[in-house]
Design a protein that fits this description.
The protein is α/β, with parallel strands linked by helices. The protein has a single domain, classed as NAD(P)-binding Rossmann-like Domain (Rossmann fold, 3-Layer(aba) Sandwich). It has 5 helices and 7 strands. The strands form 2 sheets. It has a 5-stranded parallel beta sheet, sandwiched between helices. The protein has a two-stranded antiparallel sheet with strand order 3-4. Strand 1, helix 2 and strand 2 form a beta-alpha-beta unit. Helix 3 runs parallel beside helix 4. The longest helix is centred in the N-terminal third of the chain and has 11 residues. The chain is globular, with a radius of gyration of 16 Å. The model has no long low-confidence stretch (mean pLDDT about 90).
């Protein structure tokens, strides 16, 4: 997989195919990007688990915070990593020990670790690096274009409204995450 450029179908298949997301490095600080992503993915219907050892036992946005991936009480579909590149390999090693294994390892903006990506791909997992699922969801659903940002997506089709307000747009197939 070329991790410098991802086909839209690859990203879309991940975002429509996963239901449970663990955010490693989640924060309850409303100024942190990991808080924005946590809140956004919850609003989009994903079942999100914050992972932060320093806050284990607390709640972020009414979600229990866990110390490690193995503490999550259900199978994880996607591990979203908000850790510096040098800390990604141990996170991926931990994810690969889970049963069942997650289907996706997602590294946030500015995070790239080719060694970790190769480990995950060797085990059959999909990998995304240096991207944000919040931004990608917004781009693919046309939400991001409402703010005047070029989504790099041209279409004559209107994004599907999922109800609950004009900003509840979906990725185009009418399903909620993981359905």
């Amino acid at each position: 997989m070329n991790h410098d450029s991802y086909p839209e179908g690859y990203i879309r298949s991940i975002l429509t195919g996963v239901k449970t997301v663990a955010i490693v490095g989640a924060s309850n600080n409303i100024a942190r990007p990991s808080f924005f992503v946590l809140k956004y993915l919850i609003q989009k219907g994903y079942n999100v688990y914050p992972i932060n050892p320093g806050h284990a036992g607390e709640t972020f946005l009414d979600r229990p915070v866990h110390a490690r991936l193995a503490d999550v009480p259900e199978p994880i579909d996607m591990v979203d990593i908000f850790r510096a590149p040098q800390f990604v390999v141990p996170v991926v090693e931990e994810a690969l020990k889970l049963t069942p294994k997650p289907r996706v390892i997602w590294m946030q903006l500015t995070i790239r670790n080719d060694e970790a990506a190769a480990m995950a791909e060797a085990e059959g997992l999909k990998v995304v690096m240096n991207r944000c699922p919040k931004i990608e969801y917004g781009r693919l659903s046309s939400e991001i274009s409402w703010m005047g940002i070029n989504s790099r997506t041209l279409s004559n089709r209107r994004a599907q409204n999922l109800g609950g307000g004009f900003q509840r747009m979906g990725l185009g197939d009418g399903r909620k995450p993981g359905e």
